[in-house]
UniProtKB/TrEMBL annotation:
Cellular component GO terms, alphabetical: nucleosome; nucleus
Superkingdom of origin: Eukaryota
PANTHER family: HISTONE H2B (PTHR23428)
Quaternary structure (record): The nucleosome is a histone octamer containing two molecules each of H2A, H2B, H3 and H4 assembled in one H3-H4 heterotetramer and two H2A-H2B heterodimers. The octamer wraps approximately 147 bp of DNA.
Primary role: Core component of nucleosome. Nucleosomes wrap and compact DNA into chromatin, limiting DNA accessibility to the cellular machineries which require DNA as a template. Histones thereby play a central role in transcription regulation, DNA repair, DNA replication and chromosomal stability. DNA accessibility is regulated via a complex set of post-translational modifications of histones, also called histone code, and nucleosome remodeling.
UniProt organism field: Parastrongyloides trichosuri
Region (Disordered): 1-33
Protein name per UniProt: Histone H2B
């Protein structure tokens, strides 16, 4: 018996890959890194309009803000748990700030937080 033959007059054509312009690879999209850089920069310009900040200094400030945020959020979470509450309110945040920040710094932070909260409500 003869082997099966391809249909007459048609050739098998390899599909060609259409490349991206400039030989770019599609790859995986770079994940966005969320930072406080924009906000730190805005505050810097309010306080010292003619002063710049290096990327290393910005990285340090970003780490500092993340660290303080985690400490306050963790303490507020514990306070809510102790009081058998499932929601962290401004009261827990305020108490956490008083516990974490030392003396005068805590007083200023609480007054600024209250001022900011009053502007929203």
């Amino acid at each position: 018996m003869a082997p099966p033959t391809a249909s007459k007059g048609k050739k098998a054509v390899k599909s060609q890959k259409v490349g991206r312009p400039g030989g770019e690879k599609k790859g995986r999209r770079k994940s966005r890194k969320e930072t406080y850089s924009v906000y730190i920069y805005r505050v810097l310009k309010q306080v010292h309009p003619d002063t710049g900040v290096s990327s290393k200094a910005m990285s340090i400030m970003n780490s500092f803000v993340n660290d303080v945020f985690e400490r306050i959020a963790g303490e507020a979470s514990k306070l809510a748990t102790y009081n058998k509450k499932s929601t962290i309110s401004s009261r827990e945040i305020q108490t956490a700030v008083r516990l974490i920040l030392p003396g005068e710094l805590a007083k200023h932070a609480v007054s600024e937080g209250t001022k900011g909260s009053d502007q929203i409500h």
